[in-house]
Amino acid sequence: MQDARLWRTLLGVEKTVVESIDLEDDGGFLIASVRPTGSMRNRCGICQRRSPKYDQGEGLRRWRSLDLGTVQVWLQAAAPRIRCSKHGVTVAAVPWARHQAGHTHDFDAQVAWLATKSSKTAVTELMRIAWRTVGAIITRVWADTEKEFDRFADLKRIGIDEISYKRGHKYLTVVVDHDSGRLLWAAPGRDKATLRTFFDALGEERSAAITHVSADAAPWIAAVVAERCPDAVQCADSFHIIKWATEALDEVRRTAWNDARKAARANEPGRERGRPPAGSPARPDSALAAGVKNSRYALWKNPENLTEKQQTKLAWIVQTDPRLGRAYYLKEGLRLVFKLPLEEAAEALDKWVAWARRCRIPSFVKLQKSIVKHRESILAAIEHGLSNGRVESMNTKIRLITRIAFGFKSPDALIALAMLSLGGPKPMLPGRN
Ligand SMILES: [Zn+2]
Fold first, then answer.
1. Measured distance CA(27)–CA(31) in Å, rounded
2. What's the gap between Cα 120 and its chain centre?
3. Where are the beta strands (DSSP E) in 350-426?
4. How far is the CA of 47 from the centre of ligand 1 (A)?
5. How many CB atoms lie within 10 A of CB 164?
6. How far apart, in whole angstroms, are the C-alpha atoms of residue 373 and residue 388?
7. Would you list the DSSP string of 273-336?
8. How many Å apart are CA 163 and CA 177, to the nearest integer?
9. Strand order in the sheet with 29-36
């Protein structure tokens, strides 16, 4: 064919013969009929080994390629089957696409890059594919990327966590590298068997080289870590511990709100909407109910991040509902422990425990028991500097990805998106170096 080299360049294909070019659908589609060059023919789609031809397969197949201008481009070729001595009968390899894929290498690469950089709508509309197709593409791109580098080299300090997806019904176990800040590994499930597959992949020698493991206080994590890297120091993730305190505080807030509402209903019968007339009696219970209801963020946020309005709200709560105020200071007190040097932290933690034990707030009395139980791993986290926000920020990013990935058929696509975004080597745009 004339201009064969020009077409090979425009189509971004190598080791490929372009036989003809046709336009279909009023010029909306460009169909390039192609075939692998001699040396690339009759190779196993899985291992690339030269193999005897088996049959014609299912005739002509098409592969979606990158658009040329606004025109959709498809490669069209025969898809014969071969018989590989190792893999049996399978479709022959093609130089322009992955085995069994319906899109070219360049198309896959561009989708992977976009998926880690832009919104769901941007990828699906620009590339004119469904979100599920994006999921299938990034899954195979990650499977190949994974083979190209040794993600488990030189591991010393790791963090293990569980993250919910699919509206909290399903979980991933994730492992991060504290030193590089990379996401190392993720798999569906949250149990001993799941975590063991991580240590299996890591291997005995490298597992033994792990010096520190941080995790939330889940017993299944502690058990497997003790079993596979018994010499590693187990540390508690500070943000999980602080989350417990925030949850205990929220329980107090909800109780306070319910009590105030009940009291308001009993003592302060309803009145007309709108501004109360001058001289109306005060309604302290209603005011308290309304104030506590809107106090969630003032109570949750770290005091240094509070807006002026939230600071005022907080001061008002501490005065109006001393019990809720006490719960707030207990939460803040525990958060402070993680900011102290080890010697002071140990003393401060014990003082906090004594305070919480006597506070007469059930959720904090209960929390205090958990803290005592995990005292050693909490202090280990402070001693070894693993109480940093790295795991937490990774956690936040993965949660964001789980929301974006909603709609993928399998957790493999979610894991692929997380690994391609946070795992190290980032997807590259095709044709760039
Ligand atoms: Zn093979």
1. 10
2. 16
3. none
4. 4
5. 13
6. 21
7. SSSPPTTPPP-HHHHHHHHHHTTHHHHHS-GGG--HHHHHHHHHHHHH-HHHHHHHHHHHHHHH
8. 16
9. 16-24, 29-36, 71-78, 60-68
For residue range 351-392, list pLDDT tens digits in order.
999 999 999 999 999 999 999 999 999 999 888 887 656 777
For residue 142, how far is its CA from the centre of ligand 1 (angstroms)? 21
CA of 212 to the centre of ligand 1 (A): 42
Length of the chain: 433
Distance 184 CA to ligand 1 centre (A): 30
Å from CA of 44 to ligand 1 middle: 5
> How many angstroms does the Cα of residue 105 sit away from the middle of ligand 1?
20
The answer to whether 141 touches 108, Cβ cutoff 8 Å, is yes
> What single letter denotes the amino acid at residue 413?
A
Neighbours of ion ligand 1 (CB under 5 A): 44, 46-47, 84, 86-87
78 C-alpha to ligand 1 centroid (Å)? 19
Q: Which pTM value belongs to this model? A: 0.83
Cα four-point dihedral sign 80, 81, 84, 90? positive
Written as one letter, the residue type at 197 is T
51 CA → ligand 1 middle, Å: 8
Sheet order of strands, 81-84 included: 53-55, 81-84, 88-91
CA of 54 to the centre of ligand 1 (A): 13
Per-residue pLDDT tens for 25-43? 888 899 999 999 999 999 9
| Cα–ligand 1 centroid distance for 86 (angstroms) | 5
pLDDT at position 267 is 80
How far, in Å, are 185, 189, 246, 351 from residue 397 at the CA level? 15, 19, 20, 35
Quote the DSSP letter at residue 38. Answer: G
Which domains, from first to last, does the chain contain? 4-102 (no CATH), 110-235+388-428 (3.30.420.10), 238-269+283-383 (no CATH)
Distance from the first to the final alpha carbon of the chain: 30
User: 88 C-alpha vs ligand 1 centroid, how far in Å?
Assistant: 7
Question: What pLDDT does residue 228 have?
Answer: 96
Going from the Cα of 39 to the center of ligand 1, the distance in angstroms, rounded, reads: 16
